[in-house]
């Protein structure tokens, strides 16, 4: 007869981790989110939702598998526990989202659509972001940036191997985003992953059009974050030069059409 393990004797850490995992799932899989997952699955975007990768401030990210065996990232925005008041800082003033209701539910849905629209515009312009596949309700399905079971690490976790080159690469990406008519608005070492094919930028939901009244302020913050981080890593950096570099050129502004 198999011996039942007494709960009391199990190490506290194991029990704590189990509890944390249950918590990670329980605040995201409400009935309507499960229905949306089933619909995305029926549309062929993935076969299975396999395991959680991360829990961010606003969303839980899962790894899934498509029918051809490839992996996808499934980012599910939490409706009940996301900071929807903060989201309005980036929604109000973006002409694509004029008239979005201030309610929690509508805000999170607009935010999800915004992330997908931004990813699509960026990816089509050749900017280093994960390829977006689909969105529905509070879920975005995109290319999985990872190897085997593990997502690639962020720049914050592993540091930069070649700070001068990485700094220049990211300035070029920020410049491409700007010339396309957007500001990412959350660029930092926490939202950049280090893959085998170079750096990729995540977390594009808060990106705004240049028409947003605070676009300039957000751009300066993004550039200051890069300057601060890469200075610490030993690169030769200069905030004013970086700003001039990003703004130099002929913008190919996307406008309201950058909405799916
Ligand atoms: N496409 C992806 N492929 C692999 N891992 C991903 C992908 N997207 C997100 N992740 C993982 O999930 C984490 C959180 O993702 P992201 O930053 O997009 O979400 P968030 O909820 O906005 O997070 P936060 O608020 O903490 O910045 C990332 O640091 C990364 O580890
Ligand atoms: Mg993030």
Summarize the structure in words.
Helices cover 40% and strands 18% of the residues. Helix 3 packs across helix 4 and helix 6 (163-179) packs antiparallel against helix 7 (215-232). It has a 5-stranded antiparallel beta sheet with strand order 1-2-3-5-4, sandwiched between helices. 37% of the residues are buried. It folds into 2 domains: 20-145, 2-Layer Sandwich (Phosphorylase Kinase, domain 1); 150-247, Orthogonal Bundle (Transferase(Phosphotransferase), domain 1), CATH 1.10.510.10. It has helices at 12-26, 31-42, 84-91, 104-124, 155-158, 163-179, 215-232, 239-247; strands at 48-55, 59-65, 71-77, 132-136, 139-143, 146-147, 150-151, 182-183, 192-195, 198-201, 208-209. The chain is an alpha+beta fold and 260 residues long. It has 8 helices and 11 strands. Strand 4 (132-136) and strand 5 (139-143) form a beta hairpin. The protein binds adenosine-5'-triphosphate (ATP) and magnesium ion (MG). Magnesium ion is lined by residues 56, 190-191, 202-203.
How would the blueprint of this fold be written?
Elements: H1 12-26, H2 31-42, E1 48-55, E2 59-65, E3 71-77, H3 84-91, H4 104-124, E4 132-136, E5 139-143, E6 146-147, E7 150-151, H5 155-158, H6 163-179, E8 182-183, E9 192-195, E10 198-201, E11 208-209, H7 215-232, H8 239-247
The chain binds adenosine-5'-triphosphate and magnesium ion.
């Amino acid at each position: 007869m198999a011996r039942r393990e007494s709960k009391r004797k199990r190490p506290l850490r194991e029990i704590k981790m189990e509890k944390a995992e249950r918590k990670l799932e329980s605040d995201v899989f409400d009935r309507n989110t499960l229905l949306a997952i089933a619909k995305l699955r029926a549309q062929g975007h993935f076969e299975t939702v396999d395991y959680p990768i991360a829990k961010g401030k606003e969303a839980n990210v899962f790894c899934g598998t498509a029918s051809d065996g490839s992996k996808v990232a499934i980012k599910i925005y939490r409706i009940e526990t996301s900071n929807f008041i903060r989201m309005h800082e980036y929604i109000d003033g973006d002409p694509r989202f004029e008239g979005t209701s201030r309610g929690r539910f509508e805000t999170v849905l607009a935010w999800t659509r915004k992330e997908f629209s931004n990813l699509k515009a960026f990816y089509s312009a050749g900017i280093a972001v994960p390829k977006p596949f689909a969105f529905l309700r509070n879920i975005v399905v995109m290319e999985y940036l990872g190897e085997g079971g593990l997502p690639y690490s962020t720049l914050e976790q592993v540091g930069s191997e070649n700070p001068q080159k990485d700094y220049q690469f990211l300035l070029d990406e920020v410049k491409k985003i700007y010339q396309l008519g957007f500001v990412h608005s959350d660029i930092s070492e926490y939202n950049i992953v280090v893959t085998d094919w170079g750096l990729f930028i995540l977390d594009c939901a808060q990106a705004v059009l240049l028409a947003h009244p605070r676009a300039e302020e957000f751009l300066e913050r993004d550039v200051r974050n890069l300057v601060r981080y890469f200075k610490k890593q030993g690169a030769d950096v200069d905030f004013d030069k970086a700003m001039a570099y990003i703004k130099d050129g002929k913008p190919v502004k996307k406008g309201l059409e950058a909405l799916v």
